[in-house]
Amino acid sequence: EYTEAETNWIEAARRDSNYMEPRFNLGQSKLREGKLNEAQAAFEEAARSAPRDPRPRERLEWVAKLRSKQS
Asked: What pLDDT is recorded for position 55?
């Protein structure tokens, strides 16, 4: 189930496939909720839509670190 903000980010991402921010924000939200698979998917999409922006890749590294701590 998505929050209203998450729904808005998903819709914004659908309207403009090159707009990184909604994907990044969705990833941040899922990360805060502890939903690492969903966060990773959102950050991967964000990284593809804005390859020069380091933030999605930094968050992907953070997700990987969180997964290693869970193991």
From this structure: 97
Write the DSSP symbol of residue 20: -
pLDDT on residue 24: 95
Predicted confidence at residue 1, as pLDDT, reads 64
Quick one: how far is CA 50 from the chain centroid?
Answer: 12
Taking alpha carbons only, the member of 58, 61, 56 closest to residue 27 is: 56
Residue 9 burial by Cβ neighbours in a 10 Å radius (0-12, 13-18, 19+): buried
Nearest C-alpha neighbor of 65 from the set 45, 47, 39, 26: 39
